[in-house]
Each structure stands twice: as structure tokens, then as C-alpha cells.
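Example 3.2
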Amino acid sequence: MLNIPRPNIGKISVLVAILAWLALLFVDITRIFETVNRLEPNMAPQVSYVLEILFFITVYLFYNYSINKNDDLDFLDLIWRGASTGLLATSIALFINFFYQMLGEGRLAADPLLRNFFYHVNFAMITLFLISCSLLWKHLILYQKSKRVVQQWQAFEILMLISMFFIFFNENNLDYSFLFGFVFLAFFSASLSVNLKWIPYLTFKEKWKSILFFVIILVSTAYLFFELLSYSGSNLTFVNLTDNLFLMGLFAFVFIYSLFSFLVTLFNLPTSSVFEQKLVEAINFQRLSQSIKPGQDETQVLDILIDSSMSAAYADAGWLELLDSDDKKVIIQERFIDEDIREELYELMSNTRPFSEFNWKASDNDTRKYQGKIPHNIFKSAIMMPLMVNSKTIGRLFLIKEVKDGFNKEMINIINTFVGQACISVENYRLLNEAIKNERYKEELKIAQRVQRSLLPTELHHNECFEISGFSEAADEVGGDYYETKEISSNLFAIIIGDVSGKGTSAAFNMSQMKGIFHSLVQLNPSPGEFLAKANVALSQCLERNHFITTAYYLVNTKIKKIRYSRAGHCPTLFYDASVESCDYLSSDGLGLGIVRSALYENYIHESEFEFENDDVVVLFTDGIIEAKNESGVEFGYERLKKTLMGLHHFGAEEIQKKILEHIYGFVGQSNMPDDDFSLLVIKFNP
């Protein structure tokens, strides 16, 4: 079989572009020769128009191939490529102007051949700059693209293609039709330029760099535009190549998108540190979740705890106090404070409310937070958080600041979350060590089972608009299924259900990491797609390479009666629509968390939305439900679950959940053990 090599589009397009530019130059030189020698003109202007369009198209093909080939470029690399091309084009234009300044009014300065050569050089560099920037902006605009944005960009490309051939209509004259086309392209460019979803993903440092690059692009665009206008009406050229609607439209697009990006990035700078801080908090929470391992002690957890808490609260100093085996108070961690000042503060706080109200023996210390002002000449406010393990207070975390009222609600919530997770980790360590001493494997499973039960919620958040009931069962002593709810506001609730790959203790510990990430990220009130993107970043740093987590994240808005959700490789949602008395599965594309551990994961995130009415029912489940097998090896299956719900929709949420489980146990048989963990959440909307 004949093996025909694939053509290299990049090399071919560069070669054709160079030949087209040389042909343009040759045609213009021929016209000059005919004029100087007073010969009859033989070259029609349409020849130049065709060569100009060919040059535009081949340059477009080259840059499109070059950018697509390097699809690993990040946002900053893309912007720098545009800025560097602008610097090159501007530098060449400045050099040409400087060269003519040096020539003065000499004979060489008036030579038409030399002037037209430099005219063609400027034309080529401006074209390269504008087309490259436009294709770079395309990749930024189509980041997290939707169908509407893709269609809008395709329409823009068609309009720009039409504008290439506009020269045959008006021969590059600046008439009313030209102005109308230019204004239309400018407005269309402005509508495209609002697609700036990539900016929030830049770090504070990257935003400063991008602002500098956009300034370079804006200055280059403005200078080259005025340079281009200087050729209008000039006697230098025989066929005007630069008063071109295509080039003018690109000038408008490149300048408007650069300006919008510059302004939005500039105004986003004050909030950059907040988003970075929240991501750091999620990663710190994940570090706390995985910090305890056999053979290590709890010092590592407490070290991470104080560092994470100080970072989250911007504290100026802090320390950790623990009770030893003899119930004596021991300082095990301290930051940015010497012993004398710490003892002075300790004495002050012991006699200052609310700190003086602390009781080591209180059983509800895990729900208490002691925060207030302190009468000190340096430090003005403090917060004290008790650490509890097995219903016993084992220590206290102290954070202090040099300003009054230095701890706000958000800071306190995240510190409380860190303390809770650290206490779970410490408890895991202590119980795990005890299990190893007695009966390592058996006791380890019991501890993990207890930890898992503590991770599943005892209360599912809801309001009067809906009921919710959940159940989870592990195939082994412990499992990796997880579900939880969070009340974001009185009418907005976050619901998550997930399934960790594998079974047993490793799945259970990965499940605890997922819980920590959920509690940290849900405080930001992200959209379902944003939640999956940030969760994937955090989990990618802690999950083993052969592990992943499938999940689905829902935002239930009872005010507008809508549910937005994104699915990361999880089972589809079963929805009973009371208005048509039908039941069906709602699915959405997605990929499990931890499978793709790079920014490319965001390409697999999709958000969906559906409305609900009174008496509608939503059933969320893990694959253990539909994969449950009877004695013959037949699975319960999706269709059987759908039929079961059709017969139970008139019951309340808790009754539906119980009866579905009865059907599953009846199908499997009481003597059979489940092959996989299975969990079930039932939501019913009240009339």
C-alpha cells in the first residue's frame, strides 16, 4: 500500500505566504518601472487584491497551525506571544522611520522603489501582528466555551473572510460603505470581547505580568494603526494595500479585546489574593486530612493546623497548648512570639472575658469559640479554639492580632473547620496506634468505620420546600461512598454525592479528603462547574495515581425552583416529573476527579439545569445500587430502579428511601452480601 506522507501545513503556509508577499512586491515594482518609463500599465489592481487575500489566508493558516500545535501554552504564554509580535512589528516600523529621518531630504529618501519596499515590509509586519493576536484571542475567548460563544466566533470569522473580498467592491477607498463595515465589525468585536472567563484563574503575579503585556499590545496596536493611516492618501503606493476593511476590522478586534482584558484584569487585582487564599485553604485542609499515617505522630498535624489557621486568619502570632498524659499544660507549637510576651498574654486572657469562661471539663467545647479584645499594648484581639478528641478537651489553639476586632466570621469558620479536621486526624492517630498495639488489622477497620460514620452527616439541610432522606451502606467494614448537604442561604442548598474508587480503608480515607474539600470550597458558593474544577486541583495533589473519585454536585434553588448540577463521572440523576407522571434519568457529561490532573480537566466539565415543581422526586445514588446482584448474578439495574420509583412517588422522601432499599434487599436476598458500597439520597419537593 502506498504510504503518502501528510503535508506539513505550517511549512507550506509559510512558503506560500512568502511567495505571495514577494509577488505583491514584484507587481508594485513593475508598476513603478512602467510609470518611470512612461509605459502603458499592464497590471490590473485586481492582481494585487488576489495576492493580498492569498497572503492573509496563508498567514492565518500558519498561525492557526502553530498555536494549535502548542496546545500546552498557558494564558500568560499566549498573551506574551501577542506582545512579542507587537514589539517586533513596532520596532521595525520605528526603525524604518528613523532610517528616513537619517536620510533627510536626499535623493535616496525620495526613491519610489525603496519607499515601496518598506511599505510592503510594514504591511507584512502589521498583518502578522494582527492575525497572530486574533488567533491568540480566539483561544482565550473559547476557554470554557459554550455553544453560543462558539457560534459567535464562527460568525466573526465568516465576517472577516467577507471583509477580505470587500476590496473588489470599493477598491480600498474610505467611503461610507467602508465606514459602515468598520463600525459593524467594531461592535461585533466588542460583543466578543466580554468573554474573559480565563482571567480569574490567573494568580496575582500572573495578573501583573498580563497587565504589562496588554499595555505593550495596546501601545503597539495604536502606533501601528496611526502608521497605517499615514499611508492613506499618500503618493507612495500604486495599489493601496493598507486601507483594507479586513485589516481595520482586525485592528478594532485586537485593540478592543486587549483593552477589555487590561481593564478587567486590573480591576480583578484586589480580589486575586482572596481566591488564592481560598485555594490554599482547600489544599491545607487536604494536607490535614492525609497528614496522619502509621509510624508518624500527631505533631505533624498540629504543625499544619497552626500554620494553616494563621494563614487563613492573617494572625500576627499564635501557639498551641496541649494536655499531656498527666493533664499538665504543655506548649508544643508557637509562632512569632517569645515566651515572656506569651506568658503575659496568657495571664491577661485568663482574667478577661470571654476567655476566662473556658472550662476544660465542658462537654460542648467543640461548639464553642472564644473571641474578643485583650488589654495589651501590642496585641489587641485574640481567638481561642478548644481541641476535642473523643468528647475530651485535649488542648487549645490561640491566635492573636495587633488590631482590634481582627477576626471576622469567615476567618472563624475556616479556622473552626481546620480545628475539627485536625481533631479527627489526631483522633485517628491515637485510635490507630491503640489498634496496632492490640489487634492491628481488626482494630484498624473498626476505627476507620467509626471515622467514616462521623464523616457522613447526621442532619441533611433543607427548608419547608422539600424533604430529603439519605442512607449509606459499606460492602466491607468501611467504604468510600459519601454524601452531604450545606445550606448556603435560606433558599439555596448545596448537595454532593460521591464514590471513591476501590473499597475498604483507603477509600474511606479518600472520602474524608473529599469531605474536607467540600466544606472548604462550598463557603465560596461556586457554581457546580467551578466546584469540580477546584476540587480536582486539590485532589490531584493527594490522591494516589490509581485512585479517582466520581461525584455529582447540585445547587438547589427553592426560590426559582431550579437545580443546577455538574457530574464528574457519577451515576445519572433519577427524576420523577409529577406534571407528566413520568420518570427518567438526567445525565451530563463528566470525568471523575483525579483522572486528568491538569488544567485540561476543565474541558470535561459541563453544567446542566432543570426545573422542579411540587411532588417531583429526585433520587441520587451510587453504582452499588444498580449493580446489586441476586443469586443468579442478575443486576438490579437502572430500569428496575426507575420502575420502583414510579410505584413509590406518592410517599414522603424518607418512606421512598426505605421502600427502595426494601426492594433492593428483596431482590438481592437477605443472605447475600452487597458487592459494593451503596448510598441513596431521596429528595421530594413539597406542595
